[in-house]
Amino acid sequence: MRDVATLLEALPYIREFHGETVVIKYGGAAMVQPELREEFARDVVLLKYVGMNPVVVHGGGPDITKYMERLGMEVRFVEGLRVSDEATVEVAKMVLVGKQNKDIVLRINRHGQPAVGLCGDDGRLFTVKKQLAGGETDIGFVGEIETVDVDVLLHIAEDYIPVVASVGADVEGHSYNINADAAAAAVAESLGAFKLVFLTDVEGWRAEPDDATTRISEATAEEVRERLSEVRGGMRPKLEAAVRALESGVGAAHILDGRQPHSLLLELFTDEGIGTKLWP
Q: pTM here?
């Protein structure tokens, strides 16, 4: 009966979300632990089977860091963004496009839905310009997306689940590392997504960064803006990206703990949810 109750609780959400686009930023522990990788792929396939249109945008920060350390390269972050010289971007492209992207595609394929891997270079999906951390600090080849070619995504999404790696190039062909949170928000904005979901390594946005019991269940974009100056580390790019997406027409944004099995389904298809939901 418990299982029946769970299905009945999910039913109105499945009905409401049918035919809608959900953009999922995939990263953190959910990409690292083997059992979580499999569960994520199954969850995305389930979203497709119940009539939603999932689009996966992924980073791969832990893997990039691991390979950089193996090569003796310095790893630095400013305002939650990776400082990226040409060598760093080369490693990022190898890891994100050559390894992570194809691993995700293969797992989704294996669980019953065909997926296609892309990066910002494919079909000129992303047009990028240099991004400055905090609007003023040069951190190298870190890019900010200027445009997203929606036609590329829409064409692929007709028959496949798009899986997008967060790298791209400017009009002169220079490659850039792109923060995956910002990339997911840009994709969600361009598609007019119903939902934008960030999978991370904490249970949501915390009122007190070091206190797991202070998770904020819901907030408006205005409330986030009022407190953004207090936020540090990797949560800041997520909140900034979420606010930008919400102000551009995305229906809602969610920040979830990707370490929890099936967190995506629990947030979308249950009354209480498990993360932080942000409203326009």
A: 0.94
